[in-house]
Amino acid sequence: MRAEIDQVTVRGIIEGITLHAENEVVGIVGPNGSGKSTTLRCVYRALKPDAGTVLIGGQSVHRRQDLARELSALTQESQVEFDFTVAEVVEMGRLPHRRDPARDRRVVAEALARVDVAHLAGRSFLSLSGGERQRVLIARAVAQEPEVLVLDEPTNHLDIRHQLDVLALARGLGVTVLTVLHDLNLAASYCDRLYVLDEGRVVAHGTPEEVLVPELVAKVFHVTAHVVRHPTTGVPQLLFDQEVTP
Ligand SMILES: Nc1ncnc2c1ncn2[C@@H]1O[C@H](COP(=O)(O)OP(=O)(O)OP(=O)(O)O)[C@@H](O)[C@H]1O
C-alpha cells in the first residue's frame, strides 16, 4: 500500500516535506531536531499539518475511519501507562481486527516469538527493561498486521543482535515501512531508499548508495565520513573521523 506525504508543513518545524513509500522500506534520517518525528506524527495522525496532505492508499489519513486496520506505528509516545502483562499489550494490536479469536491468538504468539519476548508473556510490562519494552511494542505493532508500518527509532534501547533482528523483521513483512533511524549504517543496510531531512526540509533522497556520500554527510551531519563496502553484502557503510567539521 502506498503512503504519500505531499508538501506537508507544520509551522516553524517542517516545511513542504514530500515523500512516498510503497511496499518497500524507506528510511528518514537527519540530525537531531531536523523534523523526522514531526513528519511521522503527521502520518499516524498525532499531528495535523498546517498545509499539505498525507495519503494512505490514496485517501487522506484525516478522513479515514479505519486507519488502524491499515497502519500501525511505533512512536516516541508509544508507552503503556497501566500494569498490563506483555501478552495483553501485544493483544491490543489485534483490537482493530478481532473477528477470529483463534487467528488472533496465533498472530500474537508469532509476534511475541518473532521479537524474542515469548518468555516474557506473563510478565508485567512495567517491570521490563528498556530494550524488552521496545521489543514488546514492536510485537504489538506487528500483531496489528498493518499494510503500512511507521517506526520512530525502532532500534532505541536494543542491543546489536536485536537491532538487526527488528530491522530484518520489518523488511521481511513485505509491507510499506517508513522508519526514522539514527544509525546511517543500519539505514544503508535495511532501507531501499532514504530521505535526508535537515532543518525541516528534505535535502536529499535516493538509494543509500546515492544519498550516503561524504559531501552530503559533511554538509548535513558535520562529520567527515569515508564510504567502504560491506565485505559480504557489498552495501555501502560509513566510517567516521573523530573530529567534527565546522
Ligand atoms: N510541539 C512542539 N512545539 C514546539 N516545538 C516543537 C514541537 N515538537 C517538536 N518541536 C521542535 O521541532 C524540531 C523538530 O523536532 P522533531 O522531534 O521532529 O525532530 P527529530 O528530527 O525527530 O529529532 P531527534 O533526532 O532529536 O529525535 C525540534 O527543534 C523540536 O524542538
Q: Kindly provide the name of the CATH class.
A: Alpha Beta
Strand order of the largest sheet: 6-7-8-3-9-10
Which oligomerization state do the chains in this entry correspond to?
Answer: single chain
- The fraction of residues in strands falls at 25-35%
Q: What Rg, in angstroms, do the CA atoms define?
A: 18 Å
Q: Which small-molecule ligands are present, each listed once? A: adenosine-5'-triphosphate
Overall, the morphology is globular
Global structural class: alpha/beta
Describe the structure.
This is Iron complex transport system ATP-binding protein. Residues 3-224 form the ABC transporter domain. This protein is an alpha/beta fold and 246 residues long. It has one domain: Rossmann fold (3-Layer(aba) Sandwich), CATH 3.40.50.300. Helix content is 32%, strand content 30%. The protein is built from nine helices and twelve strands. The protein has a six-stranded mixed beta sheet with strand order 6-7-8-3-9-10, sandwiched between helices. Strands 2-1-4-5 form a four-stranded antiparallel beta sheet, with helices on one face. It has a two-stranded antiparallel sheet with strand order 11-12. Strand 9 (193-198) and strand 10 (201-206) form a beta hairpin. Helix 4 runs antiparallel to helix 5 (130-143). The chain is globular. The mean pLDDT is 93. The site of adenosine-5'-triphosphate has 9 residues, from helix 1.
